[in-house]
Amino acid sequence: MRFLGLFLLLLLTPVAASAGIGLFTEVTGDTRLQRGEVYLVAAPGVDVEEDDIVETGSDASAQMEMSDGTLLKLGAGSRLLLADYKFDNGGNVVSAGLEVLSGWLRFAVSKLRSNDSRYAISTPTMTIGIRGTELKIDVYDDGSTELSTIDGAANIISNITNEALD
Questions:
Q1: For residues 53 and 79, what is the distance between their CA atoms, to the nearest angstrom?
Q2: Is the dihedral of CA 104, 93, 153, 129 positive or negative?
Q3: How far is the C-alpha of 101 from the C-alpha of 74, rounded, in Å?
Q4: CA-to-CA distance for 109 and 128, rounded, in angstroms?
Q5: What does each C-alpha distance from 77 to 50, 87, 130, 148, 161 come to in angstroms?
Q6: What is the pLDDT of residues 119-158, one digit of tens each?
């Protein structure tokens, strides 16, 4: 029994002691975090790290607040890869790259961000460059993508034709 307790402690320690890039603030339903080959249960207060994949079940949702104050909200049946999230010494985002693999994401950039911050969100069909924007992205089962800009502006490049979209 003592070995089981030690094993569980070692499994959970990286989540609690990690140098995360953000953390879960809200979680409903079956939401999990894939870190390498390990799956962890997502819960408020759990850190997220670069290269983590967040997955929400069919009746689930999750919200993460990144260290720079940017909010990410995932809807039901979503998968998000936190591919690249780099900060400068002042805690400002240098670059942030997210990949919406399926489902939907609502993204609100922190108003306190540096003017040099670069955000890019990729889906199977487009890459979106963001500055001071709040938007919602839906990735459908057929791979198509719908983008709704709530505030601000976004530059969109087609991943199929590699051309800018209007």
A1: 7
A2: negative
A3: 11
A4: 13
A5: 21, 29, 24, 19, 28
A6: 788 888 888 777 666 778 888 888 788 877 777 767 777 7
